[in-house]
Amino acid sequence: MAEALEGDAAQEDQQPPESRDSPGAAFASPVPETADELIDGWSAADAPQEPEIGHLSRPKVTLADVGGLAEVKQRLQASFLTPMRNPELRLQFGKSLRGGLLLWGPPGCGKTFIARAIAGELGAGFSARRNRPCLLFFDEIDALGQKRSQLRHSGAMRGVVNQMLAELDGAASDNEGLFVLAASNHPWDIDSALLRPGRFDRTLLVLPPDAAAREAILAYHLRDRPTQHLDLAKLAKITDGFSGADLALACEQATETAMEVSMKAGEVRPIGQQQLVDAVRSIRPSIGEWMQVAQNYALYGNESGAYDELAAYMRLRRRR
Ligand SMILES: Nc1ncnc2c1ncn2[C@@H]1O[C@H](COP(=O)(O)OP(=O)(O)OP(=O)(O)O)[C@@H](O)[C@H]1O
Ligand SMILES: [Mg+2]
Q1: What fold, for 211-281?
Q2: Does any ligand 1 atom lie closer than 6 A to the CB of residue 187?
Q3: Would you identify the CATH topology of the domain 55-205?
């Protein structure tokens, strides 16, 4: 690193002073006559850079880091990961490597997290058709794929939705090797045309974590931190109704408390059970509002059966 810095400094010294601060300096040489001359004149620094998003393309998270959601993981394995990893089997069964899947459910319960994990598993880039096989992930697709009737006054957005439909259909393009994953916590705002066969025809409900999942999520968020002996099962018991994000926040708060204590003590004092209990008690679960809205759709807007899974979950909870 030190070497590189020295190199840069040396180069800078050789440059004429005006090239450093005058924006027009790059064009100080005579205007090129031909395109080739122009291209020759461009320095390597002007070459197009990989977009920043490239850094996201090899996420470190894997499905093992996602707490709970066993059924969701199982379905993702069957529809994406197994066909992807077993090309011969795929050929024997004539299974194509393409598909669109929508993850939906309350906020903070792992939709975005699981999408990153799948990309981590596939070793696929969040990238484009050129780099197949790849995973294209539309997070919060309700913002992009809004019902076109709601977009009456926004021609540009309607164009985006129409274009997305055309791309997904693959009529104008070959989509083999292209997985399209989307996530939403407002599925009722999504244009139903997006949910037809061949597009996002599969949907997966990502529900709040059950007790075992909450325990796993707590363990995940405390894994690299100094802790006393903790009873995570007990914490899981008192966090019914918490989302993964709520649990992550509780761990964050308890960590801050332990750090304060350590600061004052002048030595590391690991995170204790009571600090986590206090953090949990100070947090209001964030999915209540969503559940109320969703319940209305499940009760009064479920002609197509799209909310059956959610309705079943709500019945189950009421019985408990
Ligand atoms: N199942 C889980 N396992 C581990 N951590 C989780 C899980 N669910 C949520 N989390 C934690 O909560 C954070 C927020 O979750 P995430 O961003 O995936 O929620 P989301 O479902 O996409 O919510 P939204 O609908 O608001 O976008 C994650 O970054 C992670 O730290
Ligand atoms: Mg999200």
Answers
A1: Helicase, Ruva Protein; domain 3 (1.10.8)
A2: no
A3: Rossmann fold (3.40.50)
